[in-house]
Specification:
The chain is an alpha+beta fold. The protein contains 3 helices and 6 strands; from the N terminus they run βββααββαβ. The termini are close together.
Length: 154
């Protein structure tokens, strides 16, 4: 899905999931919770990320930390595991959460009702196969701005 923002310096910026990173919603208790930007970035950010992503993919293999030639090849399997984990628990039923998986790192963003939910989310995700790191970036107070970048829609 492509999103176009207002023109900047005479041309529109196109925000895309350039690298096709898994990005999906796992809970939806609060429809007012703002959607995170997830992996959607403009072309400038894509160019900045490209080198790092190539290096991370290869270094994992060369360091013999991965049995696949690129760290990003684990991401679809990790995404399936996350979906299944959320299907097996109702611990986060009162939350609204989106997940981004990038090179074995999982970002969980959204709104939760309990301050301890972030730590619990990270523990749930870290226990899954192939996950290298889990980072919860969540908001507990609806009167406070979200601590994550927001998705820009047309």
């Amino acid at each position: 899905m492509t999103t176009v923002l207002a023109p900047s310096a005479g041309r529109a910026q196109e925000f895309q999931n350039w690298f096709n990173d898994p990005f999906f919603q796992v809970t939806n208790a609060d429809p007012a919770c703002p959607e995170p930007a997830g992996p959607f970035v403009d072309e400038r950010s894509r160019l900045e990320q490209a080198h790092h992503r190539a290096e991370k993919g290869a270094s994992c293999w060369l360091a013999r930390e991965c049995d696949r030639p690129k760290a990003y090849l684990y991401d679809p399997d990790i995404a399936v595991g996350i979906r299944q984990a959320f299907e097996r628990t109702d611990a986060f039923a009162a939350s609204t959460l989106w997940v981004t998986v990038q090179g074995r790192v999982v970002y969980i963003e959204g709104c939760v009702s309990e301050p301890s939910a972030g730590t619990q989310l990270e523990s749930l995700i870290r226990a899954l196969p192939y996950v290298q790191q889990a980072i919860a970036i969540v908001r507990t107070d609806p009167s406070v701005a979200p601590p994550y970048r927001l998705r820009q829609h047309k």
